[in-house]
Amino acid sequence: MRVLGIESSCDETGVAIYDTETGLRAHAVHTQIDLHAEYGGVVPELASRDHIRRLVPLIRKVLREAGCELAGIDAVAYTAGPGLAGALLVGASVAEALAAARSLPALPIHHLEGHLLSPMLSADPPRFPFVALLVSGGHTQLMRVGGVGDYQLLGESLDDAAGEAFDKTAKLMGLGYPGGPKLSQLAESGKPGRFKLPRPMLNSGDLSFSFSGLKTAVLTLMTERTLSETDRSDLAADFQAAVVDVLVAKSIAAVAKCGLDQFVVAGGVGANRHLRDQLNAAGTRGGFSVFYPEFELCTDNGAMIAFAGALRLQSGKVTPGSGAFAVSPRWPLASLS
Ligand code: KG4
Ligand code: ZN
């Protein structure tokens, strides 16, 4: 069975074909970074218009690369939420139209379910059940994953997501958009520990996070003094260490609480090298294995959507598309079944 996957929830247009027999056949992503860079963040209307321009050529390219005709596709999966309403509607309308034209099932997929399952596409995949840390631009959540559609929320951010904190702090420091990769790159040349940034909610005794205070702490430091280049790198390293320390401590607590020995990291911040190093070390110490998606599948892509669609088809857990291009910009993952 071959599933065409379409992702358009934010600033990446992603398309892929996943075959349940032979695996990922082809995938392509068009990023809108250049389009939004001059505005310092994603402009929703520009995002929607660009998805319209890119999606059909990208579908053609992926079909070509997979050596496949539209007639060889058995289902069309698309991101139905959460995300930007206009951007989601582009993917939803193309997917629903393709499915209707070819009498195929259209599979509306939760974007975070895509991220959550994406490590299962790698050469060394985890098996259910596992604990997952979802760290993206919009979400920071710890989940217990029992199987497809079995997602128990263990804790989440009470304010900014980890990626959002990276992006906002990078903007404050004049690093531009997208902030996460730029800030972590600057942190590479810095030494953490000089600025003593707080570790918010580290000892709160639960699995909640709070990251909005960190950018305020950075802002306060920046208004108090003029930072040299070395100061800026050290501050970036301190900020990164503060976020990572909290993410790692709560991840260890979540693994212990669930009594499981597999831990999955998904979402854009999962590309962060320092986070990976610290989680790997925690896994070695604590006797649990840590799984990541392939590097190129950490950020938004169509492969994770095609894959989630295929798993849902295989397990019979399919919520049919409405055919009416309905999307859910806000949609709690734990409400899935
Ligand atoms: O999962 P994703 O591509 O999109 C959402 O669903 O949000 O995640 C994007 C987020 C952005 O906030 C970006 O700054 C962050 O992931 N990010 C990183 C790194 N690469 C991407 N944050 C820290 N370090 C990185 N290397
Ligand atoms: Zn995402």
UniProtKB/TrEMBL annotation:
Cofactor: Fe(2+)
Keyword Acyltransferase applies: yes
Residues noted as binding Fe cation in the record, renumbered to the chain: 111, 115, 300
Enzyme class: transferase
Localisation: Cytoplasm
Enzyme Commission (EC) number: 2.3.1.234
Domain of life: Bacteria
GO cellular component: cytoplasm
Claim: Metal-binding is one of the keywords in the record: yes
Residues the entry annotates as binding substrate: 134-138, 167, 180, 272
Keywords noted in UniProt: Acyltransferase, Cytoplasm, Iron, Metal-binding, Transferase, tRNA processing
Sequence similarity: Belongs to the KAE1 / TsaD family.
Function recorded in the entry: Required for the formation of a threonylcarbamoyl group on adenosine at position 37 (t(6)A37) in tRNAs that read codons beginning with adenine. Is involved in the transfer of the threonylcarbamoyl moiety of threonylcarbamoyl-AMP (TC-AMP) to the N6 group of A37, together with TsaE and TsaB. TsaD likely plays a direct catalytic role in this reaction.
Protein name according to UniProt: tRNA N6-adenosine threonylcarbamoyltransferase
Naturally occurring in which organism (per UniProt): Candidatus Methylophosphatis roskildensis
Lineage: Bacteria, Pseudomonadati, Pseudomonadota, Betaproteobacteria, Nitrosomonadales
UniProt gene name: tsaD
